[in-house]
Each structure stands twice: as C-alpha cells, then as structure tokens.
Design a protein that fits this description.
By secondary structure, this protein is of the alpha/beta class. It has one domain (2-217): Rossmann fold. The chain contains seven helices and 13 strands. It has helices at 13-23, 35-39, 52-61, 65-74, 82-87, 111-125, 205-217, and strands at 2-6, 28-32, 43-46, 77-80, 90-91, 97-98, 105-109, 136-144, 157-163, 165-169, 175-180, 184-191, 194-197. The strands form two sheets. The protein has a nine-stranded mixed β-sheet, sandwiched between helices. A four-stranded mixed β-sheet has the order 6-5-7-10. A hairpin with a 3-residue loop joins strand 11 (175-180) and strand 12.
Length: 220
Amino acid sequence: MKIAVIDYGMGNLFSVMSALRRAEPLAEVTLANTPEAINAADRVILPGQGAIKGCMNALAEQNMLEAIHSAAENKPFFGMCLGPQVMLSHSEENGGVDALGIIEGTALHLSEITKQYNAEAHNEAHDETRRLKIPHMGWNQVQHFDHKLWNGISQQSWFYFVHSYFMLPSEPEAVAASCEYGANICVAIAKENCFGVQFHPEKSAENGLRLLHNFCHWQP
C-alpha cells in the first residue's frame, strides 16, 4: 500500500507521516510534490496549515490540481485541517478564494458563530472567561455520524484542533462529524471515496491513530 502525503510547502508533513507509519507500519508513506507522485499512490492525503490562498496558489504552481482531482475521483482521499476546507468549493478567507470543489460548500470565519455566543455570555454573566477565542485551539469532543472511518472510535472522543474557519457543506449528508464551539459546527466531511477532518489526527493521540489506521484500510 502506497500512501502519498501531498507536499505543497505548507503543513506539518513529517508529523503526519510519522503518525501514518505508527497507524499502519506496513504502509509505504511518501511525500508527493509532483502529479506523477500523486498518480502513483494507492491513497492520498491532503494536509495543511496556514491560509487557503497560499495553498491553492502552491498547488497550481506545482501543476498538481488535475492529479488531485483525479485522485479524489478514483482513490481513498483524506483531507486534514486546512485540507478539508480546500476540498470545498469556496472559502471566505483572504477576501474569498475558490477551492477544489470536491465537495460543495464554503468555509466561513468562526466569528460568524463566536460573536453572538460571546455577546450573550458577557451580557448574562459578565464573565470574560467564558468567551470563545479564535482560533479554536486545543482539545474538543467530536460527535460523529455513520461512516467506516469512525470504526472503533467512541462518540464524544477528544481530538486536537487549531483553526479559525469552519466548514459549511451545501448538502447536510456531507457532514460526517460535528463539535460544539459556541454552536454545533461541522468538523468532518465525507462524500464517496473522500473524507476530511478539521482537527489534526496526527496530534490526537490514540483516537487520531485509529482514524488514520481506518483510512489505510478503508474500501469505499
């Protein structure tokens, strides 16, 4: 089994690769920074950190967009952190950026949710410690829905987050998990052979390793 971790110069790539090797020691895990490397893999992972405009520009400059679309159509495909936002059709980050469009939807700034929650918390209790910060950083519990990649992972399991934008898929059935952060927000998306999570599996201890193991053995 050959797993390609897409390398476009943004993301905690070696931590992702290390976690994959722990999750599935028999897998051949490689960095992919060319279309040929993506095409040669059996499974593909799109990780990421930073801003979406820089990500899309880098993918285009490295001529990887066509290979990514082909992988998303034909192979198990997994986005992490920024990755699933890039899988959507659009993000309001950087003044508005068109993304890959693998799953229809938009990434919105968390202030769309937190500003109302923080105002209510202040008015009701005048307690600044209840205010939600952006980015959403740290551990949070995840409520997941029916999907093979959640096998062996309990409801309300803890995963590690660092993000300022949240996903809003156009189709409700694309939501594969949610968590509470001022409101119930989507933190995982799924469609056919594609899956993406807002949190960092590679930083999420045993739950993250189990998710990666499930991906390595997933047969969509």
